[in-house]
Amino acid sequence: RASPSILRRSWCGGPSAQRAVVFIDGEAGTAGLQVHERLEGHPDIKLLSLDPALRKDEAARQDALLSADAAILCLPEDAAQEAVALLDGAGTVVVDASTAHRVSKGWTYGFPEMAPGQAA
C-alpha cells in the first residue's frame, strides 16, 4: 500500500472541519479537469490528488480511493470497474462518469418503447 506522503491535498475554500474529502480518479483527463475546476473552490470540499507520476500506480490510487469520503471516477469503463474493485467494499461514495455501472447488455436506451418487452 502506498504511503500517505505521496498524496497531495488541494485545500479548497475556508477552514472547516466538516469538509468532505473528494478524490477525482482520472482528474488529468477532459472530464476530470472539468469536475476539478467546478469543485476546487467549493467551501465544503477538500480535493485529494495524486502526484502526476503516480496516476497509474494501483497502490497509490487505492490509497487515495480509501482515504476519500467520495470518489468521482472520470475513467474509461474498464478502468472504472477496476477502481471500484480497489475499494473492496469500503464506505467511499462513488460517482462514476462512465457507463460501466449504469448500462446493461441487451437493454435499449433512449427509446424503450421501440424495443418489444422494454416499454414501461
From TrEMBL:
Annotated GO MF terms: NAD binding; oxidoreductase activity, acting on the aldehyde or oxo group of donors, NAD or NADP as acceptor
Residues annotated as domain Semialdehyde dehydrogenase NAD-binding: 21-119
One Pfam short name: Semialdhyde_dh
One example of a Gene Ontology biological process annotation: alpha-amino acid biosynthetic process
Classification via InterPro entries: NAD(P)-bd_dom_sf, Semialdehyde_DH_NAD-bd
SMART domains in alphabetical order: Semialdhyde_dh
Protein name listed in UniProt: Semialdehyde dehydrogenase NAD-binding domain-containing protein
